[in-house]
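Q: I'm writing up a methods section and want to include an example of the input and output format. Could you take the sequence below and give the corresponding predicted structure tokens, formatted cleanly so I can copy it straight into the document?
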Amino acid sequence: MKKFYLFAIMSFISAAAFSQTFTILTPPGGAPGLVTAPGIDVTGDTVVYCDDFSDTTIIIQGKLYVVNETGATINTVVRRYEECLVPGSDNYFCWDICWSSTVDISGPMPITSGDTVNYFYGDYKPLGQAGASVIRYRFYDDANQSNFSEVYIKFNAGSCLAIEDCFVGIDEEEASLTAAYPNPASEHITFEYNTAGDNGVIVISDLTGKVVKTLNINSNSTKSIVGLEGLNSGIYFYTFHVNNKPVSTRKFIIKK
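A: Here is the clean output for your methods example:
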């Protein structure tokens, strides 16, 4: 087990930029198969695309808009995380070019300050297999991987009604944040995670980037409940850090 240095972690948290590097939007004009509302900020959240599966050769195309919220041009890289896949399906993504289904990390593409890129596609091929697959896409600065934003796309094949996600297996060798609920939350929120044998930290910040709560996680823990007393209704972000590195950032809502 790697030794955990709390001071180093907290120094990293203080230095990190908690304001969004990118804002990720659903297409303002909508898109084929889009179930989530068009033109909304889905940074750290889940977008749903679906197809009724009438054609088994169909590709479900998860289109997203990406906005550079910083004051500088960023060479932006996309990383794909296959959180859970329906067996027999396939997928790839397009960022500048369309990458092979065996590629998880794209090449860098520059986005100027304040510019919006509208040609990201997460392409999902059910190949005759009905069910829901969930894939996470992380957009990050090639020069500083700690500057990132990410989104989950749930691809429903076979129905445009709500489908339960496919089973998410936990890789014991890889840290992951698997769930946070309820969302919206009022009095408390529960985090479930896999630390991969290391201690960790969950940092909750508000929309301005101000850190409002910090939770230290023991390496043997898989679940923590955090009280939300003193926090107002609104949108918050939570980042899971393990080994001085951000693993995942997502969004939740407090509604009191």
